[in-house]
Design brief:
The protein is an alpha/beta fold and about 300 residues long. Helices cover about 35% and strands about 15% of the residues.
Amino acid sequence: MIYSFVAVAIAITVLAWRSLRHRPRNFGRYYAGFTPTVATHRGFGKMAGVAENTVAAFAASEKLGFRAHELDVRLTRDKKVILLHGPTLAHTTNGTGRAEERTYHEIAALNAAHYLHEAGPQTKRPTQEKVPLLSEVLRKIQKTSIVNVEIKRDRFDFNSQLEPLVDQVVHETGAGARVCYSGFHFLTLWHMKNTGTNSPVGLLIEPGAFARVKCWLYRHLLLPDNIHLHHTTATSGFLKKLKRRGYGIAIWTVNDATRARELFADGADMVITDNMNFVKDFAPARTAKPDKKPALKKRSRR
């Protein structure tokens, strides 16, 4: 019994020591001249008139003036990094099954705007849109725009290839200076931190009774740079506490301007929204250039 108690005490002490020494690469530290900003949710907002996670979505929101975006990535059977929220292709496309079960050639033939066909008469019938590669989107998005790449890994997905491949694509496209990562899964942060990536890594926290417990445990174990909270978890006191510890704060998904202003006043760095009218109310990020240019790593081709 005494040995178990000693082991737990040592473990807690080590975690506390690591956490105290950790200096997060938060939004303000990584992006020189960064100012709090709003980011599009999946490019042009969920269930908007432009298909989410497509090249067209980012082009449309950037035309409005947005300079920060959130997007979702998954891995195909032939190890291509694509934009897809999922968990299944049927969620937004006219395909079936999971992205991980299909080759990119098969997925590229699908219509990523299929889900909008049933959205109702208020939505203009969309044209055919392709499920894009992450590399395509990063090359199309303006080089002054910040891109939050959310890595989608399901609860019992234990593969070790996803995060290194995502980071490889980001650096091969020269986008490392304007990208930050986020994910819910323990392994997402674990693998991404172990790639030695120069880009900030964010911890996504689901809303619910155990949100703060998970946030406390994971931030001590994984040492993230930013914390991404659901707006229902983002109380004023909690945000200020995280800010004092040096974390950048992103909040999802906020569609009310009054609530967004409250969150910014409490220290939020980024508010992710489906509301494209936010571009009229909130200034875009001033820059996506880091204090120091990240060194590109030499990577072997897989």
